[in-house]
Amino acid sequence: MVKKIGILNGGGDVQPINAVIASIVKSGSKRGFEFIGFERSWEGVLNPMLYRTLDQKSVRGISHVGGTILGTVNRGRFSAKKGAGEVNKIPDDVLQEAKANLEKVGVEALIVIGGDGTLSGALQLAELGVKIVGVPKTIDNDLDSTDKTFGFSTAVDIVTEALDRLHTTATSHDRVIFVEVMGRNTGWIAVNSGLAGGADMILIPEIPFDYNKIVEFLRKRKETGYRASVVVVAEGAAPKKGLVTSMKVGDTFEVKLGGISNTIIQKIEELAPGEFELRNTILGHIQRGGSPNAEDRILAKEYGVAAMDAVERGDFGMMVSLKGDQIVTVPIAEAVKKLKLVTTDSLTVQTAKKIGVFFGD
Ligand code: F6P
After folding, report:
1. What pTM does this model have?
2. Among 118, 119, 140, 336, residue to substitute to test ligand 1 (most atoms within 8 Å of Cβ)
3. For the domain 155-289, what is the CATH code?
């Protein structure tokens, strides 16, 4: 039977990672398992290894603290995916090094806390026979095969609070304020926070926008007495007639996200010079920092315990997943096959539209 378990988190941090780590260790220790936490993501599994023993004492009092006690990196030798791009084959020598190192420290199963990229890497190791259970983590909520990833709810709360604050100052000054939010190639954070925070317009990657229609919408609002507007823009939003910028990262090019709200503001100024007083707020990593909210803490703890249950059952190559009010397991291979996108017929988008929120198309 498996006795020693490795825990690793990869990719960007989210607020409730420590809550997952603590619930794995607490529930597993009671069942006689031992734990090693790998530091700095997959880097900790590769040479020179970076790891520490985790026990009940070392995870005490961390569940409400944001970030991750293990640290993390979202690039490096073990990168399997760049954004929504194709899966990279991790070099065989790197995979073999990781497998051998896990054996060297006596780790018989690995719980991998990660999003699309981290779990795509985990899958390649699982194909070499390493026993892996995945836990779905990302503020973007874009992992397929689960209703929700942990971190998403807290990010939505943070953006909603920012929108409440921006509404009052936008109204005082009769300004149009743009708020750019994270989410990579999906609009989950934008749509949910936009609906909760009363956005007048929401722009998301799934619904390409038209600059002229945006100007028309703002004009119409002004004519009917609404001089102030708050617009939520997902960082991956793009106009109907495409605009994709890329940046060099290492030896490859990645789609560069961030800054689309500035581009939109410039374009509005070109199409309607001086008609609107425009301002921009890019929330950036504020969305990932600080303490997790109550919903995320609960979900993280449920995922942590469910991951331990999966290890105990020998349910390897699987990811724990929220389906309705149950945590089930699904193949990691299924979960990373495609991104989960916002659909225009979803309840959230339809509700927003019926209230009068404009999606830029
Ligand atoms: O995937 C999570 C995420 O926060 C995205 O929403 C965002 O585009 C990206 O990570 C930012 O990455 P980094 O931490 O490398 O700036």
Report:
1. 0.95
2. 140
3. 3.40.50.460
